[in-house]
């Protein structure tokens, strides 16, 4: 194990939802509506994970993803036939990495003091499908030493249990939480990691500023505007 | 205690958010934006409660309400001065009941086999302010035998602990959960109550159908389109 563990979130961090919007546009012939359905789908997907956590219940992320799609379709008054719904679900298995991912992973491979893992709400199957279907990710498979899925804990981010499980998987104890650096585009994930004492780099591609106030005193350790920005954060951390 | 306990949620069930939209319109001179800010505020307010539950953290609903307002303003690119923000927060202490509340409470008062309580995410102070500032609610104060605030549990709906606390407050044990009927306009609250074995009446004023699928097998016990609809549900339940 290196001195720093980088734990990469995938949905909204390594993988973009543009493929979903693209497929919805094909079915709906309406760009604005396609974007609304995609956003609503993602919103319910996350809301469901938070609510399941709250209720002490668990359904796999595959089930959550399907259920939240059906809710989003109802909510936006959008009719799709079963075949189209299955097609959208399949799209979720071949989401495309953001354009900045390949270069960032190439650069990060150079750091021998860094261990990288994937850390996701997705099931192992969903994660594997996305990695296999992406040329960039499949070529960098060895860059990721491990895949940590919340499915093994049966709770979702930002439950402390899933970050603690991540720590266990990468061989870190309570006093070493700061060695783990979450990399995520999702503010709730950043706050969740900081809540248990991890460091967290927020990938703010939209260059919005940090406005999340669920825990108003919690801020990301660092903010980058593209994934390659992590290189400088690590160099500084390792005093290189 | 009667044979049935009706536990009334307040925000979005007895109390409407129209007063918030009204005040926002005054500040923003833009009806559509006022509605968007109000919706975004409410959305973050609930998201924060679910996320705090998930993180095992607690801030009072007053703090959550303020923090989510600031997030909603940032998110919608809306600038308000401190005085306006304080004014909006104060509006939350004098939300106005939906027009169907007075008649429903009058009708429900006739049932001697029914005990009614208020059951809310709000602090006791917030609930008391809303009850006092509303003529309808203050005149019906004796209709509510108790006020149950999640603040006493330091978790938010839909955590099982808060519904179990409600049960304890109304003197019901695990085998008597079905005697408690939650009345709520909020689907996450309905699912939360059903999750612990309570009955739950969804107040679906917008006449949307039940499309929530966080727990896809969970449905409301009954759906009413106005608060007075509860009367028939109770009559049926009591075989009157």
From TrEMBL, chains A, B:
Domain of life: Eukaryota
UniProt xrefs under InterPro entries: 2-HAD, HAD-like_sf, HAD-SF_hydro_IA, HAD_sf, PGP-like_dom2, S-2-haloacid_dehalogenase
Keywords assigned: Hydrolase
Keyword Hydrolase: yes
Pfam families: Hydrolase
Matching Gene3D superfamilies: HAD superfamily/HAD-like, Putative phosphatase, domain 2
GO molecular function: hydrolase activity, acting on acid halide bonds, in C-halide compounds; phosphatase activity
Family as reported in the entry's similarity comment: Belongs to the HAD-like hydrolase superfamily. S-2-haloalkanoic acid dehalogenase family.
Protein name stated in the entry: Haloacid dehalogenase, type II
Species, as recorded: Aspergillus eucalypticola (strain CBS 122712 / IBT 29274)
């Amino acid at each position: 194990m290196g001195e720093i563990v980088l734990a990469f979130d995938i949905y909204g961090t390594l993988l973009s939802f543009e493929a979903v919007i693209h497929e919805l546009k094909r079915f709906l012939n309406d760009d604005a509506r396609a974007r609304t359905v995609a956003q609503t789908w993602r919103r319910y997907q996350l809301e469901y994970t938070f609510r399941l956590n709250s209720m002490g219940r668990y359904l796999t992320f595959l089930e959550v993803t399907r259920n939240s799609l059906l809710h989003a379709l109802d909510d936006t008054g959008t009719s799709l036939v079963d075949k189209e719904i299955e097609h959208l679900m399949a799209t979720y298995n071949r989401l495309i990495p953001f354009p900045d991912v390949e270069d960032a992973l190439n650069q990060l491979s150079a750091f021998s003091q860094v261990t990288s893992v994937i850390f996701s709400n997705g099931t192992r199957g969903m994660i594997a499908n996305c990695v296999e279907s992406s040329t960039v990710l499949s070529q960098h498979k060895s860059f990721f030493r491990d895949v940590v899925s919340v499915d093994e804990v049966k709770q979702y981010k930002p439950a402390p249990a899933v970050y603690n499980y991540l720590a266990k998987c990468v061989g870190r104890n309570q006093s070493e939480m700061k060695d783990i650096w979450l990399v995520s585009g999702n503010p709730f994930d950043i706050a969740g990691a900081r809540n248990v004492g991890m460091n967290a780099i927020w990938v703010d591609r939209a260059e919005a500023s940090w406005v999340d106030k669920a825990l108003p005193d919690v801020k990301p350790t660092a903010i980058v505007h593209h994934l390659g920005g992590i290189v400088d954060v690590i160099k500084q951390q390792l005093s290189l």
